[in-house]
Amino acid sequence: xxxxxxxxxxxxxxxxxxxxxxxxxxxxxxxxxxxxxxxxxxxxxxxxxxxxxxxxxxxxxxxxxxxxxxxxxxxxxxxxxxxxxxxxxxxxxxxxxxxxxxxxxxxxxxxxxxxxxxxxxxxxxxxxxxxxxxxxxxxxxxxxxxxxxxxxxxxxxxxxxxxxxxxxxxxxxxxxxxxxxxxxxxxxxxxxxxxxxxxxxxxxxxxxxxxxxxxxxxxxxxxxxxxxxxxxxxxxxxxxxxxxxxxxxxxxxxxxxxxxxxxxxxxxxxxxxxxxxxxxxxxxxxxxxxxx
Length: 292
Ligand code: GRG
Fold this sequence. Notes:
By secondary structure, the protein is mostly helical. The protein has one domain (3-288): Farnesyl Diphosphate Synthase (Orthogonal Bundle), CATH 1.10.600.10. Helices cover 72% and strands 1% of the residues. It is built from 15 helices and two strands. The protein has helices at 3-24, 30-40, 47-58, 68-85, 101-105, 107-129, 133-146, 151-161, 171-197, 202-225, 228-231, 237-240, 246-250, 252-270, 278-288; strands spanning 94-95, 98-99. It has a two-stranded antiparallel sheet. The longest helix is centred in the middle third of the chain and has 27 residues, at 171-197. The mean pLDDT is 95. The structure holds geranylgeranyl diphosphate. Geranylgeranyl diphosphate is lined by residues 44-45, 47, 80-81, 83-84, 89, 96, 151-152, 155, 181-182, 216, 219.
């Protein structure tokens, strides 16, 4: 099967299990149910669940038997997008090609939709832990990546360094933000698949972090040169708001050269993974060249 069909197969499965999860969540108020479904089922590339499902298969597992872990990953990612769009954070009116959650349901309900998604994710992770040590390791991987030593810390640093002049903040701070805000949550599903397959997670993590950094550099490049309709959100805001970004720090040309370097490093690290990684080789090329 070619790459595009395979990606669509994984993405289709992810859509199916997310729809099931949204239907079975049983929120006690209609606005919570509607607000959560609005963002969770708004499409998006679903790259994090796709990474999980593809790595599980590459390591010899049957991805169709694993529904809760990829749902937990996408619920946490979706909560982070809802909260990131709030006026107190990035203040974005559009997400995934539609008005942001708070533009439709109001700030207070958007905060609660995010809170609901986060707690739901941890609920299903705890259910999975009853399966034993491998599931516990996968649950721990995700909780670390999402929290104060991962995505939340990256977001905190992003806010902290925003608007500071270059020189006062630079390469080290940029790497800290990118690694934690983005790369940890790209790496986590790959590591979780290794955890569940009973394989060492170090190789998956090395690849995942490199892929996450590539993903964020291409995000910074898209913010500069992308088309907002295709990307599905407002572009050019990062520079306007004095955010520390790869393009802001190095310029477009060097940012593109860095993206090429990371793409190469992704392909190198992939060689260390013991499994059929051909899907990931093409995925790296597509992330490098992405326009959304
Ligand atoms: C609020 C704790 C908290 C964290 C927010 C996700 C995030 C952290 C901020 C969003 C802004 C941003 C550029 C984050 C970097 C990660 C990233 C590129 C997110 C967008 O992910 P995609 O491109 O989105 O996978 P889709 O819509 O395709 O799922």
